[in-house]
């Protein structure tokens, strides 16, 4: 197996050996074909890793299509003891499908699940508000 990097020593005049001059040595770095391949491989590994990570993650943190909710587009209600999102959805929008209303409430409030606690304040989209 040969080395990937070799050096060439030259003296100031270019004719006498570097050891005979006794002065500072000038060293030029030459990369062999194998050395260039190894260097290119070492550089490409982090680039390929970063690219693969970006592709796998999908870039959702950088480019989200979810816009913020405009002010005044929801009504806030306080959850009472024994209430669920389903009962609130039926109360707020009796003519709408409760599944759609519950889904809209979950998305608007960014809730991890459909469970709520008594005293919790949640936002109801105005389209389902009982004030309409």
TrEMBL record:
<dbReference type="InterPro" id="IPR018392">
    <property type="entry name" value="LysM"/>
</dbReference>
<feature type="domain" description="LysM">
    <location>
        <begin position="75"/>
        <end position="124"/>
    </location>
</feature>
<dbReference type="InterPro" id="IPR036779">
    <property type="entry name" value="LysM_dom_sf"/>
</dbReference>
<keyword id="KW-0812">Transmembrane</keyword>
<keyword id="KW-1133">Transmembrane helix</keyword>
<feature type="transmembrane region" description="Helical">
    <location>
        <begin position="38"/>
        <end position="56"/>
    </location>
</feature>
<keyword id="KW-0472">Membrane</keyword>
<dbReference type="Pfam" id="PF01476">
    <property type="entry name" value="LysM"/>
</dbReference>
<protein>
    <recommendedName>
        <fullName>LysM domain-containing protein</fullName>
    </recommendedName>
</protein>
